[in-house]
Structure of GTPase HflX:
Amino acid sequence: MTDTPTHRNSAAEHPETSGELTGSELEDVVSRVLARARSRAEPVSTADAPAPAPRAGHDHLGRARELAAEEDVLGAADGEQRDLEERRALRRVAGLSTELEDVTEVEYRQLRLERVVLAGLYSSGTLADAENSLRELAALAETAGSEVMDGLLQRRVTPDPGTYLGSGKALELKDVVAATGADTVIVDAELAPSQRRALEDVVKVKVIDRTGLILDIFAQHAKSKEGKAQVELAQLEYMLPRLRGWGESLSRQAGGRAASGEGIGSRGPGETKIELDRRRIRQRMSKLRREIAAMKPARETKRLNRRRNAVPSVAIAGYTNAGKSSLLNRLTDAGVLVENALFATLDPTVRKAQTPDGIGYTLADTVGFVRSLPTQLVEAFRSTLEEVADSDVIVHVVDASHPDPEGQLKAVRDVLTDVGANDVPEIVALNKADIADPVVLARLRNREHPSVAVSARTGEGIEELRRLISAAIPRPDHELDLLIPYVHGEVVSRLHAQDAEILSTEHTPDGTRLHVRVREDLVGDLESYRTGSGTSETAAAQDPAGA
């Protein structure tokens, strides 16, 4: 078997249990998937080598569809990307092995990529939806640092309460694991602790679920102190009900003749070790919650300063790997990390931006979302996601080249509803328009209003997006006619720096006459310069420097 990952569909392999597919129907399914894959991949010459066998769900380069070549992702606006170089400094390498052929190799061995087999189950929806979900799981696995060897899909009315997949499919998965030499199985769902144990007993390798995989990626990519604390809290919440083991350090409770005839004197203190572990986890979780709460005032202070200065805020939200950081770099030259990976950036980044007519606002990049985002992460990152809920406008970034952009839109809006940001005005930015299907772009633009097709890589549509943001943010709404003496030129300078709209300027013998729109907090400070009040001329006459 080759190392190229595949997706096997149990409906095609077991027609007697899951609905029959004829040979021609199966060929149609495979050809449809391959056609979508080719639309995302660059042309590759096959003149000197035979064409590889078709593999459903992945492109002919053998990579998950969501992850393309790195040079296709970075653009001129992304800067030097030194953070990306640091992240890649200790990247594991495919093809290397930890097994030693000679004892002299012990000083030079390197870790190889973890080999994984994917397993998915779907009870509703279409085959294409299930394949998209499994492709996303493959991209998550690659981001976590593993090599996807194979994949299985099963259609089943309800998950099996024992092994999730059922005994027959679990045995088939065991054969696939043995044939590919995999050391991990990743299930595209959140498993109950009992299901995970039962499946491990059958396949004889480590089994993790989708939630555990996402938490692992977050643990790798968290950089700030607050981000690390939030990820650790989510991991502990996930780990607490999954502690297990009957090791020698545990003392199992026994009592009476019913306990294998041991009788009096055989009673131990119970599961002492596991209870101590649970207590330590709860104590650590309490400490992390206090630390995260203590970090909140610093963010609140920055937010209050922006509110006090009436600075509009715009939050960039969207599905993971949709291009949010690239768009932030294009709009503000922020130079934040851009990587072709899921959840590459977790810590929010806030930068100053400006509309075409000079109105300043803040632009905040937030953590990406994904289908079935673990509830532990939503709760742990709730303080960070408040940036979205408190913003004036949300720029919702969508990967228009993805096979299911509507699914991305729904997944993100579900999370926004959970954090109370569903009533914030929204602009849909259809990113990657340079490689998206024009029909899909037209369909999305007709459905979503307001929306704009952009490409963070080429700069297409960026100016139109700036105009939409300019029209959506709160604007100065108090219109004033001012006469400012020349000796008070600092007031004119302040108006130019204070996000005021200067509609007209006239230099007269008495001073600078301005017609402006300002925010409410500036009206009182400018009252003495309003024409018609007589105060401007009086101030000029009383000022000795103006004589």
